[in-house]
Design goal:
The chain has about 270 residues and is of the alpha/beta class. It has two domains: about 160 residues, Alpha/Beta hydrolase fold, catalytic domain (Rossmann fold), CATH 3.40.50.1820; about 70 residues, alpha-amino acid ester hydrolase ( Helical cap domain) (Orthogonal Bundle), CATH 1.10.3020. It is built from nine helices and eight strands. Strands 1-2-4-3-5-6 form a six-stranded mixed beta sheet.
């Protein structure tokens, strides 16, 4: 009995320390006290609205540039009273002062529209229905300049991996206010190490990644996609050996419901997608 009480006490202390550490995180407290969070649904030229969280400095003695990240991985936490504990790669950015902008890209999480992996750029736009990541970035910046107070008319973007792609794509035919773009280790067209590793299809990471990322959603949501259920085996070699030929990924698990998986594994002219 004494031993059980001892372990309960240890558990309580452990949980208390976790809560205490979260509350005492000075960087998170600085963000909460120094910034006010707003949430917007910004209309694009085709009428689709993209969910955008904006953290605006409370100090209004000067004007600030925008620093934006566009992501397919969620801008959570959602709710104007729920703050991120980090707004940038380093604390120095937060103390220097920016209007931080985080956006769910088209078709992901709380944004409307349809998501397209590595959405191709449209060089010549004939109508407002001709949209890509360049136009979505342009329209977002245009809206921010007009509706967010105390901005200095300048914007920058940064992102790592997939968000890095949205930086690169957003820099094409860019808004005049976009002055700096930092795409860090961006995916390009998935031909490199992301999908075709040295020319060969990289099965293991792509199977696991698209088993959740590739799942279709019914509409805007704060929830992550529910992953496709599959056998959990620690040894990847054994798992794929038991799965058999590549077509069995669909036969046994994906059921032809992961559209991008079908494109990269079955289409004879993969290059045509880009």
């Amino acid at each position: 009995m004494k031993r059980a009480a001892y372990f309960v006490l240890l558990l309580a202390l452990f949980l208390f320390q976790g809560v205490y550490a979260a509350v005492q995180d000075p960087r998170a407290e600085y963000i909460r006290s120094g910034y006010t969070k707003f949430e917007y649904r910004i209309p694009m030229r085709d009428g689709v609205k993209l969910f955008t969280a904006v953290y605006q400095p409370n100090d209004t003695s000067r004007k600030y540039p925008f620093l934006m990240t566009r992501t397919p991985y969620s801008v959570r936490p959602y709710g104007a009273d729920n703050y991120k504990s980090r707004l940038s790669p380093t604390e120095a950015y937060e103390k220097e002062g920016f209007i931080f902008v985080f956006q769910d890209v088209r078709g992901r999480y709380m944004s409307e529209g349809t998501f397209v992996n590595m959405r191709p750029h449209i060089p010549v736009k004939k109508t407002n229905r001709d949209v890509d990541e360049s136009t979505d970035t342009y329209d977002t910046i245009e809206w921010l300049l007009k509706h967010v107070e105390n901005n200095n008319g300048k914007a920058g973007m940064w992102g790592i991996s997939y968000p890095g792609f949205f930086c690169s794509a957003g820099a094409i035919d860019s808004h005049p206010a976009l002055k700096a773009v930092s795409p860090q280790a961006p995916v390009s067209n998935f031909h490199g190490d992301d999908i075709f590793h040295n020319g060969a299809f990289w099965l293991s990471p792509n199977f696991r990644f698209f088993s959740s990322f590739g799942v279709k959603r019914e509409g805007p949501t704060t929830e992550s996609p529910k992953p496709v259920e599959y056998m959990k085996i620690a040894d990847d070699y054994q798992f794929f050996l038991e799965m058999g030929p590549l077509k069995n990924a669909n036969t046994k698990y994906f059921k032809n419901e992961i559209e991008f998986w079908n494109q990269i594994t079955e289409h004879p002219n993969y290059d045509e997608f880009w």
